[in-house]
Amino acid sequence: MIDRRKFITKTALGTVAVGTLYSCVDNGIKPHDPQKKSGVAAGDDKPVKKPVLISTWNHGLPANEEAWKTLKNGGSGLDAVEAGVMTAEADPKVSSVGYGGWPDREGKVTLDACIMDHQSNCGSVAFLQDIKHPISVARKVMEKTPHIMLVGEGAKQFALEEGFKEENLLTEDAEKAYREWLEKSEYKPVINIENHDTISMLAIDENGDLYGACTTSGAAWKVHGRVGDSPIIGAGLFLDNEVGSAAATGLGEAVMRTSGSAMVVELMRQGKSPMEACKEIVERIYKIYKNRPDLEYLQIGFIALNKQGEYGAYCLRPGFNYAVYDEKDGNRLIDGEYKIS
Ligand code: ASP
């Protein structure tokens, strides 16, 4: 099976919005207030449910498992989301993330990832090649540079300087899929057929602080150099520790056009529940795409987690699922509610 549900039409590529990079530079950060009463969100007396983890797709289950273990072993929320999504990056069977990810139309596996913490520190890499764990490189960008995003050769050089190993990420299976695709060299997606995709993870830890991570090999057979929403803070991932967090999966161009994850967080700030906020953005995207020829292949899903530990998700079409882990119900997979069939 060479088809993959994600694709980009030439039209879409021609009009790809340059990612809206939300400013979260050091001088704009609101410092974390350690005096703030733990367990109670700002301006709200509701007890916070915590910890809670939410991740996209089936591969969210093992990712949540790993992240939960990390938290229980005393790791930070940041350690947890990093360790969580690394499980998908390392799994050769996950053809949409990290090692084993399906390549672009030149046969190159190119990776995008970002990470963000409760103090609005963030790091990101895009168009990174030959490094198995882009999420860890993104974390190093956050912790060791004054910047937020590194791309391509520069990102790789930085990773190598930080001690990451160069390795071939194109597995035999991925190469085979690529060769089959080359026979026709056309985008022909089948929505959700594989049911796995970008992994995004959101966490609220024991302190009631929010963290997020997102990592992907992006759309299979994309034009060499294409970067999607996943490494873009505000598009593929966003959080505001006073409000909530959100992340996206699906056609990155649609998420970038709407600054999707940042908007979900803003809607929660205005009082919407996580699910209502996700739904409103999916509806905005649908409105933009409903008369476009590429609507046929559009799938979009958002997950969100607010400061009270309440979670929600919404997607455009059936087939999207997400994994949630909390003390009460353990780790489970939930089908996303959707707008159209
Ligand atoms: N959002 C990712 C991208 O467009 C891929 C996906 O989640 O399907 O690169």
UniProtKB/TrEMBL annotation:
GO terms for cellular component: cytoplasm. It comes from Sinomicrobium pectinilyticum. It holds the Pfam family Asparaginase_2. GO terms for molecular function: hydrolase activity, acting on carbon-nitrogen (but not peptide) bonds, in linear amides. Substrate binds at R226, V227, G228, D229, T249, G250, L251, G252. Gene3D superfamilies: (Glycosyl)asparaginase. It comes from the Bacteria. The record marks D197, T198 as: Cleavage. This is Glycosylasparaginase. PANTHER family: L-ASPARAGINASE, N(4)-(BETA-N-ACETYLGLUCOSAMINYL)-L-ASPARAGINASE. The active site is at T198 (nucleophile).
